[in-house]
Each structure stands twice: as C-alpha cells, then as structure tokens.
Amino acid sequence: MILRHFYKILFTLLLLTLPLSLYANNVTVSNISLTDPDGAGETINVEFDISWGNSWRGSINHDAAWVFVKYSTDSGSTWNHATLKTSDTSTGYDKNNTSLGYSQGTGTELDIIVPDDNTTTAGGGYGAFLERSYPGAGTVDTNDINLVWDWGTDGLTGSTQARVKVFAIEMVYIPQGSFYIGDGNGGTESTYAFHENGVGNTPVQITTTSKNITCDNTSYNDDIDTTPVAVDGDGGITGNANWPTGYEAFYCMKYEVTQAAYRDFLNMLPLAQQETRTAATLDGDETGDYVMVGEDGGFDGRQTITTESDPGSGPYTFGCDLDNDNTVDEANDGEWQAMNYINWMDLCAYADWSALRPMTELEFEKACRGPMDAVYAEYPWGTLDNTEAENVTNEGMINQISTESGKGLSNYYSATYGPGGALRNGFAATSSTNRQTSGASYYDVMEMGGNVWERAVTLGNSSGRNFDGTHGDGVLTTATNNEGNATNTGWPGIDGTPSYGVTGGTGGGYRGGSWGWGPSVATVSSRDNAAETDTVRYSDDGGRCVRTAP
Questions:
Q1: Is the CATH code 3.30.70 the one for domain 250-301+312-545?
Q2: N or C terminus: which one in the chain shows less Cβ crowding within 10 Å?
Q3: Predicted TM-score (pTM) of this structure
C-alpha cells in the first residue's frame, strides 16, 4: 500500500524543453515521468528522453551530459537536490547501475555513471554522467532512460507529495595524463606565465614527479614569485594533496554557463537566495530591469536576464530579453549567449547548486592544450592566429553566427569593439569547421579564449592553494543575510564564519580573456589576472564548472 500510494501522489513537472540545433548547447530533456516505485527500497525511477548534438566518443576523449534532479515537496515554492541510488562506499558503483534498477533506454546507447558522493555507508550520488557507450559522433537521441531516485535517503516518506525537475549540462571528458603549463620559448614567455623555479622562459611538464613552480613579476595577490609551489601531478601541491593539478581525469563544461542556465538557476531559488545571486534589490519594482547589471539596470554587455513581474512576497520569475521588448524567452532573446555579470561567488553558488566545482588554473591549461608541447603565445585552438568576430547574424538566436571566418575566430576587443558583449556559446562552430576555425581547445572545449573571462582557482596565493577540490551537494546557505552562497568550506572565498558560505573572491582568479580585452590575454598561458581578488560583477565576467572523474 505504501508503494502504490507513493507512486500515485508523486507527479512530474518538466522544466524546459530546448529547441534542437546542430550548433551548440542544445541538450534537450523531455517526457519526464516517475516509474517503477519501490516502497520497500524507498526508491522510484526518474524516466526521461535526452538528446544533444555534436556528441562524440573517440580514442582520445568523449563528451557527456551531467544530469541531476531537483524535487519540491511544497508545490514548487522551494527545491531540493535529489539523491541518486548507488552502491555503498565499500563496493563503489556499478558503471550502468543495472543491478540498482537503472535503465539505458532505447536509441543511442549511453553509459550511466553515478559517482558515489555520499561518504556514509548508505551511499548516494548527486547526479549522473550520460555518455556514449561506443565510438561514434553526431546527435545523441535516447528515450526512456532511467535514473533511480533514493527518496528514502532524502528523508521523504511514502505519504510525501513531490514534483521533480531534471537538468542537463554538456560536459567534455579530459583524460588523465601529463601536460605542459607555461609557454616560454627560451627568451620570453606570456605575462606571468608558469615555469619551473630557476628555469625561466621555459614551459614545465606536469607529471607524477614533483616540480617547483613559480612565475616572474606577479601581480595582484600572487606570491609564487617569491615562494615557489611544489606540484605533483597525482599528489597535489605543497601542503594540499587534494588540490586538483589537472593530471587526474576530470569533466569540464563544454560551454561557458549560458544566460538560460543562470536564469533557470535563479528560478529555482527562494526570494532571499535570488536577492544574493542578482545585483538588483528585489523589492517589487524590477519588472523589465536587467537585474544582473544593477539597481534599475539597463541593457549592457548583451546581458539578458530580467524579471517578468512583481511576485508580491514570493520568489521572482526571471527570463531572457535580449531585444528589450518586455517579452521574455523569445527565440531571439539570447538564451544561448555566455552568461556575463557574474562574480566569483555567483559562479561558486551555481557550481554548488549543480553538484559541480570550480576549475583550477592548471586544469584550464590542460583543457586548452592537452598533452601537446607548449608554444609561446598560442591560443586554445592551437595556433598563433586570431580572427575577430566583429559582426553577427541571427542576433540572439540559437544559430547566431559571426559573418567573419578564419583561424581563431573569437570574441575579443579591438578598435571596432566588435559585438560589444558576450556571444552565443559555440558561435564559431559549424559542420565544416575544424579545431582552429571553430576556436575549440585540444579536447573540443569551446570558447576558452575570449567571449567571457573564465573564473578559475589560482595557484598564486594561499587562498587558492587551500582549495580542497570537493564537489557541490546541491544545497546553498540559508543563514540570515547570507542566503544563496556556496556551502563548501574548502572553496576559495569561504567566509570567516563558515556557515555564511563563499562570500569573497580571494583565491578565485581569471583566465582566458574576454570580449572586453585584447587578444593577448586569451593565450593559454597568460596569467594577466590569474590571482586578482575581485567581487564586482563585470560585464565580461563568466565562467564554467568542472567535476573530478569518478
């Protein structure tokens, strides 16, 4: 009776069905339902269809979708992170978890990998990687895939009413292995580039042998020019064995956080947390304002997020409105543009909420360059070329492209100022482009040079070096006047009162350049702002998140 009752009262709510496209950031989740309830085991399956384009599995690496589930027990007023069933921590996880009730569905065959994030003997995962089971390329299209929600671990009972939403983020698998940081050619190197202590203007290979890393003439909060740091590929750094050096395998977001993704994140938060994660004071008169820009914010830097209406005492509903016509989320409203106007605390909150983590600046160089030898002043697409994406067509749409073409097509500042803001993620990629002309990294991560700055954990100061590499758990702070912050106490910027969460920017720097800067800072090894402490929301600040491979 408990089992049947639980199944009847649970219902689903589809968050978002995105239009298909062959260009980029087009992951689609649809037809969500709850099936196969197990009252004795306190689980139920979350079944859905998933599709995304430009997928591949090759001999070097592959892409994936990071999928996680949120549930509400109060008719959508507040949302919680759902725990997925895993084996206990003593036995690890079954790759496809078939023994636990997971199902790969039909269509493109996908492996289901659920990392065991719960440190208790009960086990439990905060999400699942879905990735091609076999080599291939093209569009993933899989129906009736099943994840197993462990509602008992989440504290629900057979009489709980709940609704669920499913989120998916495209990722790229970065394999384990050696790589180079720094780009010196023996006579010169990029600004503040890494090198081995005592061997200037020379790149250094990160392996399982410890190397003392330093750089010259550091700026902002860097201190490794006077205090070199030992980096051991699989052993962390001086005093911190858990610091992610980039040597171990990890998953990196294929694209920078989009305007749509941040909008959806805001729409899942209660009012007090929304207030923290926007720049405006949400006091009832923000309808039509660009709330990430500031109080009474006007359109700037192609930032799109506005409020739909005054909600009274409840949380706001946000939408994208690039064309500023007071009708949100139209086809030309810029949902697929890279998110800008987010600071370090915003990015950490998004990472915590989605059960990911910030990347380190060594992981940034690994994701750009792969295992290839370092070349002085090279860009993430592997050449010294850059072409400014000065003009675009299909403004604000999912197929927005630049009218320019050439190697290193990217969004950076020049005398003409280009489009004056963030562009669609993957805007330079078409069916006929290659790595150089699409601006892709060695592992096919997009826009790691230009568009918006990548916020990364710095090696350059003690706050960054204290990073413990933990993943978010989907839960943000609820402490009064500090609602909506990331809760990980081992992340840079954690408050002196840890229950307040990540409230500062110390330890979180910048890599990769942006549309507001010239191309030189977009080179792989440039560290022009790598240790800058900043909490301001700038029009060209964005980022992406990562997750250590299980």
A1: no
A2: N
A3: 0.94
